[in-house]
Amino acid sequence: TQLLEQSPQFLSIQEGENLTVYCNSSSVFSSLQWYRQEPGEGPVLLVTVVTGGEVKKLKRLTFQFGDARKDSSLHITAAQPGDTGLYLCAGLYNFNKFYFGSGTKLNVKP
Amino acid sequence: SAVISQKPSRDICQRGTSLTIQCQVDSQVTMMFWYRQQPGQSLTLIATANQGSEATYESGFVIDKFPISRPNLTFSTLTVSNLSPEDSSIYLCSVNANFGQGETYEQYFGPGTRLTVT
Q1: I need a surface site. Which of A5, A6, A33, B17 has the fewest CB within 10 A?
Q2: Interval B65-84: pLDDT, tens
Q3: CA of A86: which chain B residue's CA is closest?
Q4: Cis ω on the peptide bond leading into residue A39 (within 30° of 0)?
């Protein structure tokens, strides 16, 4: 059972398109993180959001934490083939454990 | 940040045997975590390895199948026992660390150990 559900599960788009990945839960999290993982490697942390309603930008990536700290979104503007990977959200629960979302596989075609 | 190494990076094991995975961190951390990841899928938390006490296991994971050691603040091992093909997966070690960033904990991962059971 996953505490966090991500959607969509799969996304295949053309270079230059925009996309949004959603991460939803019925639980409240102390903070939430987004990761990107490439085959054969461990997940790499992209961002941590802590405050309800917080928005963080990392170049073409925009991350938002829901007001109630139960959900988050990742928006990518003008996607590039280098953005291809598995995107994972993870919520910090009880201040000590991270639980992962179901994952979104993104493929950006040149 | 934390730099985490795992050994072995991959292994092929016969069913019924066991594999022990080592995890080394370059700094002292209170909590270490072990995750399992089926190829292309998300991560499932197996257990939390606490130094000086028994590991705490998530629902569906038991100590007899996944014994864990945590002898000090920089090292942990996960053993996957009595292997079956269903145990074929990637096993990842992780640490939570504050590193002086206030209330925010960040999580760092090792590169993973890819296990194939034949």
Answers
A1: B17
A2: 999 999 999 999 999 999 99
A3: B40
A4: no
